[in-house]
Amino acid sequence: MSLLEVKNLTYTYGQGTPFVTHAVNDVSFSVENGEIIGLIGHTGSGKSTIVQMLNGLIEPENGTILFDGRNIKTDFKKIKEVRFNIGLVFQYPEYQLFEETVEKDIAYGPTNMGLSSDEIAERVKYAAELVGLTDEMLKKSPFDLSGGEKRRVAIAGIIAMRPKVLILDEPTAGLDPKGRDMILSRIKEYRNETGAAVIIVSHSMEDMAKTADKLLVMNRGNIEMFDKVSNVFSNVERLVDIGLDVPHVTKIAIELNKRGFDIPKNIFTVSDLKEAIISCKKGGNL
Ligand SMILES: Nc1ncnc2c1ncn2[C@@H]1O[C@H](COP(=O)(O)OP(=O)(O)OP(=O)(O)O)[C@@H](O)[C@H]1O
Ligand SMILES: [Mg+2]
Question: Which of 12, 14, 113, 167 is deepest in the core (most CB within 10 A)?
Answer without folding.
Answer: 167
